[in-house]
From TrEMBL:
Residue ranges occupied by any DUF4440 domain in the UniProt entry: 35-146
Record flagged with keyword Signal: yes
Pfam families: DUF4440
Organism the protein comes from: Spirosoma foliorum
Protein keywords: Signal
Region forming the signal peptide: 1-22
Residue intervals passing through the bilayer: none
InterPro entries: DUF4440 (IPR027843), NTF2-like_dom_sf (IPR032710)
Lineage start: Bacteria, Pseudomonadati, Bacteroidota, Cytophagia, Cytophagales
Alphabetical list of SUPFAM superfamilies matching this protein: NTF2-like (SSF54427)
Name of this chain's protein: Nuclear transport factor 2 family protein
Length: 164
């Protein structure tokens, strides 16, 4: 083999391996991209303590089960509950991190699951609560909105307030 043939062979092998690598990366649907973007906006609204922006991702009849197991029905009730935390200087925020989104092939629904972290300043340190969540999203004329969320607290560290 001469130098030109070897160069062509190496380029061909590179392109072949690059092509198969590029094909293995799944392309996210526009629905998944939209839901991820809305989750990011929701996290940013919590960080900014922006109640209006936080509520924009929810349907009016949202159902939420908190990490402690208590239940809140309706967007207005959810926002009233969250507004208390937003006013609390010891509330450091919640972050929900998406692990997976599955879009229904039979109805305008999607399931998002992931893990979450809540942080609070306490006299003896920063209380960090972590857990998992599942959200049901419904596609509406105005885009994807959260229909229900279930949060489960799994661990708490950093403060004697854990376990109380």
């Amino acid at each position: 083999m001469n130098r030109t043939q070897i160069t062509c062979l190496l380029i061909g092998l590179f392109l072949l391996s690059f092509g198969s690598f590029a094909q293995t990366k799944p392309v996210e649907s526009t629905d998944i991209v939209a839901i991820k973007s809305l989750r990011t906006q929701s996290n940013q609204a919590i960080q900014a303590r922006d109640l209006t922006a936080f509520g924009q991702t929810m349907l009016p009849d949202i159902e939420v089960t908190r990490g402690s197991g208590s239940h809140v029905s309706g967007r207005d009730s959810v926002l009233a509950s969250v507004s208390v935390q937003f006013k609390d200087p010891n509330f450091l925020g919640y972050v929900r991190n998406t692990d997976q989104i599955q879009v229904s092939t039979t109805s305008p629904l999607a399931a998002e699951n992931g893990h979450w972290t809540g942080r609070f300043q306490r006299p003896d340190g920063i209380q960090t609560i972590t857990g998992v969540y599942l959200a049901m999203w419904r596609k509406t004329e105005s885009g994807w909105k959260i229909r229900s969320e279930l949060f489960v607290s799994l661990a708490c560290t950093g403060s004697a307030a854990c376990g109380k």
